[in-house]
């Protein structure tokens, strides 16, 4: 579903991603960890067409992200084609990013009706199912300000799912939550994973990584330092930098 081959990303002279190579198979969950500034968000943003890679190749479901290849040469992807590819990728952010002047259900139907031109009645039926799935059937008509952080994040997940994505990206989805609200969001993500969703999750919730992730990737300084089965990495990190990082957060 995702294949990165020596992906590099610079911001001017700042080299942020310095050759990321990894692969996420369909139905797999990858957790991405690493110190602040190591390039985790930038990597997710590259997958989601929010940043263009400068070198290397990044594929989502076989499509080269940001470029098209013709006769061995790369051309920037037409914005319309990029937008179409992006629709199939759901993203959930640390700060929820809900529309504050729309109710929960209005947030969920926004993209399907505006982008996919789904009839409103159909979008509402589906949105109700999704809100039910994240445990918020009774909050459909509530505005974000009246919801807890955990509830807002669950609406954000329902909103991303409303586009029927084939891949879900999570960028520290529980980092802004009070500790007692983390579990409800991780619970929804756990169910999503059990249902077979392909997910890339930036998180420092090591319990989640250990139980749910198929792969754990430790990034530092724009490179993958160590990657493998979560249980093995967590109990027996091979690299000194991984050991140092884990001892700080565990
Ligand atoms: P992480 O998510 O691992 O904390 P980020 O991907 O957010 O790391 O950032 C990696 C580095 O890239 C940081 O030094 C950050 O300041 C820099 N960076 C991120 N986005 C931009 C941008 N749009 N312009 C310039 N520098 C950026
Ligand atoms: Mg980040």
UniProtKB/TrEMBL annotation:
Coiled coil: none annotated. Residues 2-246 form the ABC transporter domain. Keywords: ATP-binding, Nucleotide-binding, Transport. Signal peptide: none annotated. The keyword Nucleotide-binding applies. It holds the Pfam family ABC_tran. It catalyses: a polar amino acid(out) + ATP + H2O = a polar amino acid(in) + ADP + phosphate + H(+). The keyword Lipid metabolism does not apply. Its EC number is 7.4.2.1. GO terms for molecular function: ATP binding; ATP hydrolysis activity; ATPase-coupled polar amino acid-transporter activity. Belongs to the ABC transporter superfamily. This is ABC-type polar-amino-acid transporter. It comes from Nocardia uniformis.
């Amino acid at each position: 579903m995702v294949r990165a081959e020596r992906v590099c990303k610079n911001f001017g002279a700042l080299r942020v991603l310095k050759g990321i190579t990894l692969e996420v198979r369909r139905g797999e969950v990858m957790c991405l960890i690493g110190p602040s500034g190591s390039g985790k968000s930038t990597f997710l943003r590259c997958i989601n067409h929010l940043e263009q890679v400068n070198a290397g190749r990044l594929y989502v479901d076989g499509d080269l992200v940001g470029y098209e290849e013709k006769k061995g040469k790369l051309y920037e992807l037409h914005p319309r084609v990029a937008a179409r590819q992006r629709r199939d990728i759901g993203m959930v952010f640390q700060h929820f990013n809900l529309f504050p002047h729309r109710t929960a259900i209005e947030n969920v139907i926004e993209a399907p009706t505006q982008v996919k031109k789904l009839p409103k009645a159909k979008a509402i039926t589906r949105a109700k199912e999704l809100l039910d799935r994240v445990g918020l059937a009774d909050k459909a008509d509530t505005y974000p300000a009246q919801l807890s952080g955990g509830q807002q994040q669950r609406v954000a997940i329902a909103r991303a799912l409303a586009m029927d994505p084939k891949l879900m990206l999570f960028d520290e989805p529980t980092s802004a939550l009070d500790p007692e609200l983390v579990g409800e969001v991780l619970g929804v993500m756990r169910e999503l994973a059990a249902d077979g969703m392909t997910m890339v999750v930036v998180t420092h919730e090591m319990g989640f990584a250990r139980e749910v992730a198929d792969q754990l990737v430790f990034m530092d300084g724009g490179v993958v330092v160590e990657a493998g089965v979560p249980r093995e990495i967590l109990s027996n990190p091979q690299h000194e930098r991984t050991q140092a990082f884990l001892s700080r957060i565990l």
